[in-house]
Amino acid sequence: MRLCLLNCPNLFPFIFQRRAMSGFSFIHAADLHLDSPFAGITARVPSIAGVLQQATFKALDALVDLARARQADFVVLAGDVFELADKSLGAQLAFADAVSRLEAPGIAVFMVCGNHDPASGRSFSVDFPKNLFIFPHEKVETRIVSRQGTNIAAVSGISYEKSAESRNLVALFPREHPGLFSIGLVHANVGGATGHENYAPCKISDLDNPGIDYWALGHVHTKRIVSQKPLALYPGNTQGRSFAEAGQRGCYFVQVEGNKITSEFCPLDAVRFLEEEIPIAGIETISALENAIFDKVGKLAAEAGNLPLVCRITLAGRGPLYGELKGPDTEDVFLERARQAFEGRNPFVWVERIKNCCAPEADLAAREKGDDFVAQVLALAGKMQKDPAAAKRMAEQALSPLFDDSRMKRAVNPLTDEEISEILDNARLACLELLEESS
Ligand SMILES: [Mn+2]
Fold it and tell me: Which residue range forms the structural domain that includes residue 248?
């Protein structure tokens, strides 16, 4: 028998059977991005596009199933539950449904708003069940969770008011310990994580707060242990939405027994993104390469198990087939044939792209040691690849006469890091082709 209470004793009078245990457990998830549009994934087949569109919702359902199956005492959601500040109607209704499925077994849900769904964003007049508590943005608040009349944990949290949150929210948490297992729930960029906006920035050392036993973080989309004491985790997002978010996605199931905290990662995603390279070295014929592509897609499908798969294969490295692969339609021909080979699979296997990044069969390292122009460019490109920041500075310097022109500035966007890296790769390849022709 269990009673799960927030700070109001008559709020959750739900009673049900649970296994005997002295500790308690909760689920920590973040960045659900409900109703994410999967920008950049151009699924031509409507049934696949539909599955992608539903994937963030399915991950939410999986989270609810997990919380119920494991009989978690409560759930904490560390921001970006919704994709859009003007939360979509479908996302809000689906979220209300999910929370109400947790209401019957008495599982409370605590949530903070992140940069995608700040408190100031528009909301529809959806009635959320009473087991949901959304932390305010003005200051850190604390809620006590109880079971069977006994207080088991304190959850403190604070929301974003607007997207570009510049406050150090972590620093606002109380430093006195509440005498119960204490969770700090916050959406923040801890330690200047790259690849994510630097919102609610703080240093890792800011987490060193005697009032907090577990930091339930959100914002960084790939799971990460930020600190061991106190334990601070990013669970990553619940559903990958691009190849930048490849691999398993899910949440942490956290068990607390006395001083012992055990965190177990549990996948929730409904569609798996996987990307892999095929080194062309040693592959002698186009037919052998095609077999290698089919084998690799088959291996990724096995890895995705019972989940639908969106995959990308990159042909990489140096090898004798380089010349034959140079044609403009090579990628498309392989792609079309791979899609056909895996058509009709259930769950589906969708090959998103076959990317050709091969280089000719030349001894690059030896060639870089020469003193001619080609060797110098190869050496420089190699050096720049190892130091992208320096490469960016040099490229910007070289291009400044062009990009500093006021008319050009209006017409052309500055180069992105990815574009600069591609220019370098192409320069390298052009040099290698010159080598090939002259040999
Ligand atoms: Mn996010």
Answer: 4-267
Residues with CB under 5 A from ligand 1 (ion): 31, 80
CA-based nearest residue to 293, from 345, 324, 246, 333? 333
292 C-alpha to ligand 1 centroid (Å): 36
Strand partners, 256: 24, 261
Residues 184/215, Cβ–Cβ less than 8 Å: yes
* Nearest partner of 395 among 407, 385, 409, judged by Cα: 385
How many domains does the chain divide into? 3
Cβ atoms < 10 Å from Cβ of 401: 9
Q: Tokens 């199933």 label which residue?
A: 65
**Digit-coded pLDDT (tens) for 342-369:** 999 999 999 999 999 888 776 667 777 7
Tell me: do 176 and 76 sit in the same domain. Answer: yes
CATH number at residue 225: 3.60.21.10
Measure 72 CA to ligand 1 centroid, in angstroms. 24
pTM of the full structure: 0.81
